[in-house]
Amino acid sequence: VSQSRYVPAKSITGTFSESAGLTVSDTFDGTESPLATNWSNAVGMTGLAKSGGTAQGTSGSDHNASYWDADTFSNDQFAKATLSSTPNYHGVLVRANANGAYVAYAHSNGERLYVFRYDVSGAVWTNLVSGASYITTTVGSGATIELRMSGSTPTVLVNDVSVGTLVTDSTYASGSPGVYQFGSTAGIASFDAGDL
């Protein structure tokens, strides 16, 4: 004789995610110049270095960018940086490859947020902010800047809140996430990236 009994389901609360994709992080402990362990210099730029728990550019008068090379990411991806100081050209990039990348960075003491497509050929920077040159916002010390690329749709977030309106772009379909800075002022405390 088979028997069955009813067991009420337990209530479960919390935050759940459908994504089980790849995620990576770096807190830039130790010293390395340029970044090499898990990192490569972005094509057409010098790389960033790590020192004292922050990442910063190695060239004080040039574009510096490094991308995570230890893993392969899905085409839909994000990069997020936590800032250790008020930003001045500090940011992130996604889909970095041999031909270019998508870049977001804060400037003017964190009052302006720029989003570009960077093309290695000709070193061309194409603005992706709709109807303006930049997004007016406030990005201070301890804030996060995040750039997401899903299909041809970019989204930029400050402290996990979407800001501004961006135009779509399908130039680069794949690549890797990373960090960006023009100049060599310390300012990136940590990096998180992964698949969307």
Q: What can you see in these coordinates?
A:
This protein has 196 residues and is mostly beta strands. 0% of the residues lie in helices and 44% in strands. The protein is built from no helices and 16 strands. Residues 1-19 have low confidence and may be disordered.
Please outline the helices and strands.
Elements: E1 23-26, E2 39-41, E3 48-51, E4 54-57, E5 63-68, E6 77-83, E7 90-96, E8 100-107, E9 112-119, E10 124-127, E11 135-136, E12 144-150, E13 153-158, E14 161-162, E15 176-182, E16 188-195
Antiparallel strand pairs: 1-16, 2-5, 3-4, 5-15, 6-12, 6-16, 7-8, 7-15, 8-9, 9-10, 9-11, 12-13, 13-14
Order of helices and strands: EEEEEEEEEEEEEEEE
Give the % helix: under 10%
Number of helices: 0
Unreliable stretches, pLDDT < 50, 5 or more residues? 1-19
Q: Keywords, please?
A:
single chain, 196 residues, mainly beta, eight-stranded antiparallel beta sheet, 16 strands, 0% helix, disordered N terminus
Short description:
The protein is mainly beta and 196 residues long. The chain is globular.
